[in-house]
Write a structure and sequence with these properties.
With 201 residues, the chain is mainly alpha-helical.
């Protein structure tokens, strides 16, 4: 929260215009509508990626997941902002509708003496964002979906043959290609300690 607030103030002082900051963890009907309106009207949605920022996205009603999906549906340019290093802690159960985040180039925010340079890079990326409504990521091509399905089926065969390591590898590959059933299967495996995976506490 403190980093997000600092980024907001830095962007405003640099002339980025109006910068809405979702500062509250409390939700009610009125505040929900304010967030929805801000997302629907904005051109750029900056997603601050702290180490644990996406861990609860698979939980129904998680507000981070709701806001990201709203921004995507609204046609915002989504800029993932990684703190001090590239974000690579993608949850194993990241929902299918958020898998596209893995394919978006991250902008690194350095919190040391290079902070101002980081903000300048972020400003450049914001300025280069296309007009509203043209930034929706493309849906996976039909052949990609079919390939993901085939990889998923190979994973099921590997599991039936008790080749757990191969099954997990193939499920991860299929999930990375955006196949929702593979993501769900991985989540179930972690929850129940199947396929040789440790139980996700």
């Amino acid at each position: 929260r403190d980093i997000a607030r600092t980024v907001q103030l830095a962007l405003k002082s640099a002339g980025a215009g109006e910068v809405f900051f979702d500062y509250s963890s409390l939700r009610d009907g009125v505040f929900n509508e304010k967030i929805y309106q801000a997302i629907d009207e904005c051109r750029v949605f900056v997603l601050v990626l702290s180490p644990e920022s996406l861990t609860r996205c698979a939980v129904p009603g998680d507000w981070v997941a709701i806001e990201i999906d709203r921004a995507r549906q609204a046609g915002c340019t989504i800029i993932p902002l990684a703190i001090d290093s590239n974000y690579d802690r993608w949850p194993h159960n990241l929902p299918h509708n958020l898998q596209f985040l893995k394919n978006i180039q991250q902008t690194k925010l350095l919190t040391d003496e290079y902070f101002e340079d980081s903000v300048a890079r972020l400003l450049s990326r914001i300025a280069a964002a296309p007009a509203k409504g043209t930034a929706k990521p493309p849906e996976p091509a039909e052949d990609t979906r079919m390939q993901a399905l085939l990889v998923h089926n190979d994973a099921l065969r590997a599991a039936l043959n008790h080749d757990n390591a191969r099954a997990v590898e193939l499920l991860r590959r299929s999930a990375a290609m955006g196949f929702g059933e593979a993501s769900a299967a991985l989540g179930t495996a972690y929850e129940n300690g199947r396929l040789g995976l440790p139980v996700d506490q």
